[in-house]
Specification:
alpha+beta, Aminopeptidase, 5-stranded mixed beta sheet, two-stranded antiparallel sheet, 4 helices, 29% helix, 25% strand, globular, binds coenzyme A
Length: 148
């Protein structure tokens, strides 16, 4: 069975959301991760978000985008049945190439400190841990968090 990698489309939302809900140690919320929120993200970042399709099923996804300066990666996930076969590595390769084409020089991401699989993956791919920064944020609307 072959893996097909392609740009994520708005119509992939339901399959992608089901995949996310199968993956532990990720953080979602009811606004940004709703169909409307993800559609908005895809409109702004139409060339930098990818899915992996296997047997007509979405088995991997990466959202990436930028603000004109920094690239950012969100919600990389691979179906638990298809892990450790390089799917996330290929999704990341495609996302980083796409960001480079948009002349982005650096990319970051959030990963829960307790997510050992995720941290092992990012470490392997050279994403260094910044311990010199306090990340601060503020919600502008009411958000309901959903941590998997
Ligand atoms: C993290 C995740 C995306 C990795 O997907 P994957 O397709 O299995 O990753 P790859 O096969 O491309 O792994 C590449 C390398 O990363 C490292 N790695 C990946 N998963 C690992 C794990 N569970 N433990 C240790 N190292 C791991 C290994 O070095 C691996 O190479 P190897 O298999 O030759 O040893 C997947 O485990 C996942 O979906 N987890 C849940 C969601 C998540 O945590 N997302 C990331 C946070 S944003």
């Amino acid at each position: 069975m072959e893996n097909l990698f392609r740009l994520m489309q708005k119509s992939d939302y339901e399959s992608v959301y089901s995949l996310w809900m199968k993956c532990k140690n990720m953080g979602f919320n009811n606004v940004d991760d709703s169909e409307k929120g993800i559609s908005k993200y895809l409109e702004r970042n139409s060339k930098t978000c990818f899915v992996c399709i296997r047997n007509e099923k979405v088995v991997g996804v990466i959202l990436s985008g930028h603000d004109g300066r920094r690239g950012f990666i969100h919600h990389l996930a691979v179906d638990p049945d298809f892990r450790r076969h390089g799917i996330a590595t290929e999704l990341l390769r495609q996302a980083l190439n796409a960001l480079k084409k948009e002349e982005i020089s650096k990319v970051g991401l959030f990963v829960f400190a307790y997510n050992s699989d995720g941290n092992a993956f990012w470490e392997k791919h050279g994403f260094t841990l910044r311990t010199d920064i306090n990340y601060r944020n503020k919600a502008l609307v009411d958000l309901i968090r959903q941590d998997t």
